[in-house]
Design brief:
Blueprint lengths: L4 E8 L7 E8 L2 E7 L2 E8 L4 H11 L9 E8 L8 E10 L15 E2 L11 H7 L11 E2 H4 L2 H7 L2 H6 L3 E7 L5 E7 L2 H14 L8 E5 L5 H9 L4 E4 L5 H10 L2 E7 L2 E6 L4 E2 L7
Parallel strand pairs: 3-6, 4-7, 8-15, 11-12, 12-13
Antiparallel strand pairs: 1-2, 3-4, 5-6, 9-10, 9-11, 13-14
Length: 283
């Protein structure tokens, strides 16, 4: 299995001081080709590790599967040009359960995504609403604002690889009823980190993810809202800003979207009725 960190020489420059040479720890970024029954589906740049979860979560986002029972298994196989003899751990072949319709050749996208892009231009809001199996607007979950403000710090405390590299995004899933941190994943791509979290839910047969909060370490983009809706997650919280399209999709889908969740404050862009606030601060 590929490493998640690598050491590389770096020259440290500080004004007024002599440059110094040392080793720096970097987050590894490598391509992963996802195949279904041997047919290439997608390529994404990711941090190696939890690849099966990444593939499973990706298939949920693509509406190929929606339940854990529909995902049969996956195996790393030899890369292109190796004749299958050398396992590069950068090709993952997924097997769907019997009876599950594989991705159509018409929609299978042999595409390249960068770690900052994700599902760039993937689909319109209407398309996401149409293909999602789960209606997040019907989830009656509420969360105390004071509890919500603790999630970013709890996520940050668990980012072991970020502490070494400073170069990874993170996504974590919290149970609203208990406050338990269910799972946390890191990756160079924010969309990959979310796919790994959703994939964890697939492999543990926990879809739809009702009564949960998805906390992310960066901004809330359209594709992250899309992934939350596809997995049945009712509330997405980010420490940074959402995009305009992310807010539009969240509002149209009935998802609660929180941005700029820092310290004791936050902006609620949609679904504010799910966030409980003290009486003196109630809207």
């Amino acid at each position: 299995m590929g490493r998640i960190t690598a050491r590389r020489p770096v020259v440290k420059i500080r004004l007024g001081e002599e440059p110094t040479r040392r080793a720096d720890v970097l987050a590894v970024e490598e391509p992963l080709e996802i195949r279904v029954a041997g047919s290439p589906l997608a390529i994404t740049m990711r941090t190696p590790g939890h690849d099966v979860e990444l593939a499973a979560g990706f298939l949920v986002s693509e509406a190929v599967i929606g339940r854990g029972e529909e995902f049969h298994g996956a195996i790393h196989c030899g890369g292109p040009g190796t004749g299958g003899r050398e396992n590069t751990y950068n090709v993952l072949d997924v097997t769907l359960a019997p009876g599950v319709t594989p991705p159509s050749p018409d929609i299978a996208r042999n595409f390249y995504t960068t770690s900052s892009c994700g599902m760039c231009g993937k689909a319109s809001i209407d398309a996401v609403e149409t293909v999602s199996r789960y209606d997040v607007s019907t989830d009656d979950v509420t969360v105390d604002a004071a509890i919500l403000t603790t999630f970013p710090d709890r996520l940050r405390e668990q980012q072991a690889v970020f502490d070494k590299t400073g170069g990874l995004h993170a996504a974590a899933l919290f149970d609203v009823d208990t406050g338990e941190l269910l799972v946390l994943r890191e990756d160079v791509g924010r969309h990959n980190a979310v796919d790994k979290v959703v994939g964890w839910a697939v492999l543990n047969d926990r879809l739809p993810l009702r009564r949960t909060v998805l906390q992310v370490s960066g901004r809330a983009s359209f594709e992250l809202v899309q992934k939350a809706v596809m997995a049945g997650i009712p509330l997405l919280a980010a420490v940074s800003a959402p995009s305009s399209l992310a807010v539009e999709l969240a509002a149209a889908s009935g998802l609660t979207l929180v941005g700029f969740l820092r310290g004791t404050s936050m902006n609620v862009y949609s679904g504010v009725e799910r966030v409980r606030v003290p009486e003196h601060a109630a809207l």
